[in-house]
Amino acid sequence: MSVVLRHKGQAITEDDIAGIRALVSERATWTRRSLSIALCERRGWVQENGVPRDAACRALLLALHRAGHIELPAPRWACREPWRRLRPARVEVSTDPIGGTLRELGAIELRQVARTTDEATVNGLLEEHHYLGYTTPVGERMKYLITAQGRPLGCFMWSSAPRHLGPRDRHLGWSAETRKKNIRFVAYQTRFLILPWVRVPHLASYLLGRMARQLSADWQRVYAHPIHFTETFVDTERNRGTCYRAANWTELGLTTGRGKADMTHTPNRSLKRIFGYGLVPDYRERLARLAS
């Protein structure tokens, strides 16, 4: 059966499209989301924790719709001003300076808050105090609120890793096939924020070390699989990544400066240093090996 379309590495055949068309025609009251959930259930498209791969399925359905292979129900909601994104609400916190040493700071809590009432605090702090603001993380995600002395110090945000990243892929030494199977064991640090009034020497590298000891177990608990390797980007026009070097992260190389949606093959943004850190000693062997 011929392949009609490839979506994120997945081959979609004529039989696949015929099955989706049949599902669409079953019920006139389908919404795009209910259709996606039903398709996930029938095809067994679920994450390891049993949650349907709804977002990925909806992206596939939209790609088929735009290519003219299927006709999706009309969207129930459309943004009238798509250039505007919904911004997290502002978080009211004390801006009194926090200084001293790590020892003087006392106990530091690093708490995973995604899908909890404190998630809005992380979103709001990132929106107001991180130079990139807040954007919704892609795929699997974790958000951490960092506190001490009853006050926020900053936050982390993690997401699924980019599928294609040349310096990372060369460092890991995996094939295209193993990357497709094992990319879920890599987490991308999309945001790391220490609030501007917090001035504690070595705090950033200390928090990176704490995060490295905690992240995989938290991911296992939520998504039913561990993390073996972490990565992040550092804007070369803003800093050198000193805290990552101090925490023993490895500089893997530079981005191309084109972004994932590039259509011109010419740089259109600042270069980013790519840093990576293995959470287990044999991370290369684990990530380059196909599961049996």
What is the secondary structure topology, with strand pairs?
Blueprint: E1 3-7, E2 10-13, H1 14-26, H2 32-43, H3 54-66, H4 102-105, E3 108-112, H5 119-129, E4 141-148, E5 151-160, H6 166-172, H7 176-182, E6 186-194, H8 203-223, E7 229-235, H9 242-246, E8 250-254, E9 272-278, H10 283-287
Parallel strand pairs: 6-7
Antiparallel strand pairs: 1-2, 3-4, 4-5, 5-6, 7-9, 8-9
Helix pairs in contact: 2-3
Characterise the protein shown here.
It contains ten helices and nine strands. The protein is of the alpha+beta class. The chain has two domains: 64 residues, no CATH class; 186 residues, Aminopeptidase. The strands form two sheets. A seven-stranded mixed beta sheet has the order 3-4-5-6-7-9-8, with helices on both faces. Strands 1-2 form a two-stranded antiparallel ribbon. The chain is globular.
Describe this structure in a few short sentences.
With 292 residues, this protein is of the alpha+beta class. It has helices at 14-26, 32-43, 54-66, 102-105, 119-129, 166-172, 176-182, 203-223, 242-246, 283-287; strands at 3-7, 10-13, 108-112, 141-148, 151-160, 186-194, 229-235, 250-254, 272-278. The protein folds into 2 domains: 3-66, no CATH class; 102-287, Aminopeptidase.
Distance between the termini: 27 Å
The fraction of residues assigned to DSSP E strands is 15-25%
How many discrete structural domains? Answer: 2
CATH class of the largest domain: Alpha Beta
Approximately how much helix is present in the residues? 25-40%
Query: What CATH architecture label of the largest domain applies?
Result: 3-Layer(aba) Sandwich
